[in-house]
Design brief:
The chain has 257 residues and is an alpha+beta fold. It is 26% helix and 51% strand. It has a 10-stranded antiparallel beta sheet. The chain starts with a strand and ends in a 9-residue tail after the last helix.
Length: 257
């Protein structure tokens, strides 16, 4: 690979531009992931108050990525992933965008795949604690005899709960793909009405009670049937699912598509 990396502020700030014509990565399960024409660019800064948190922009792009999943060939072409992370005081947020010209899974092919989403109101100090606790857990899990895994687990729960209580807001600006039968587009948002009411004892029940979510979904039944069939399902299962959601009032069916 070739590229440039510039750092300043004792390594806390980094600007980089790296290219690899071709690379192979062996995944945990032993499967090889092959990437062609990989490009990685970024301009990030370590946040003074939180040693494990960085903010800034990063872009990862690849002409083709291919691997096998559960015996099926998977390929992504002309893919780019962009992230933009922000930290202001104890508040953090991020934007994430993935775009791929083509996604193939076995015999199923999707084109113009897009996912644009983001989160706001994430408590930065809780993210820092969660990162530290996660690192401690993973470093000790290899030798459970010398670690108090229960205590390490509790160290994960506290910052995770604080993160939820800070009232994070999730938005999906666009999740879309195309098949020959048409395009499917989804957008939405989710947040807790009053996250301060959530605690360890009521999290399972109160989280659902406090959750406020909205989704907008636009597709044709023919397009959905094509995708489901490509993944081994049937058109009948799509018809049944659509009818059930329509009866419950979650979707409105128009036309005969």
């Amino acid at each position: 690979g070739i590229g440039q990396i510039r750092s300043s502020g004792a390594g806390k700030n980094a600007v980089y531009n790296i290219n690899f014509p071709k690379m192979t990565v062996t995944a945990t399960g032993g499967e090889d992931v092959t990437l062609e024409n990989v490009r990685l660019e970024g301009d990030t800064q370590q946040v003074t108050e939180y040693k494990d948190l960085n903010q800034g922009k990063q872009t990862f792009s690849v002409d083709k990525m291919s691997f096998k999943s559960e015996g099926q060939a998977v390929a992504l072409e002309n893919m780019s992933v962009n992230t933009d992370t922000r930290i202001q005081g104890d508040n953090s947020g991020f934007d994430f965008a993935l775009e791929a010209g083509k996604l193939s899974v076995g015999t199923q092919t999707l084109s113009d795949v897009t996912l644009k989403m983001g989160m706001e109101q994430l408590k930065a100090s809780s993210l820092q604690q969660l990162t530290e606790a996660s690192r401690s857990l993973s470093s000790n899990v290899c030798d459970p005899a010398s670690a108090d895994l229960t205590m390490l687990g509790l160290k994960l729960i506290t910052p995770m709960l604080e993160l939820i209580q800070s009232g994070p807001k999730l938005r999906i600006d666009r999740l879309a793909f195309k098949v020959p039968e048409g395009e499917t587009v989804l957008s939405g948002s989710a947040e807790f009405a009053d996250a301060s009411k959530l605690n360890v004892t009521n999290l399972n029940t109160a989280a659902l009670e406090q959750l406020r979510a909205s989704l907008k979904f636009d597709s044709s039944q023919k397009a959905l049937s094509s995708v489901v069939a490509g993944l081994g399902g049937t058109a009948a299962s799509v018809e049944e699912g659509v009818s059930s959601l329509e009866v419950l009032g979650y979707i409105k069916k128009t036309g005969d598509a």
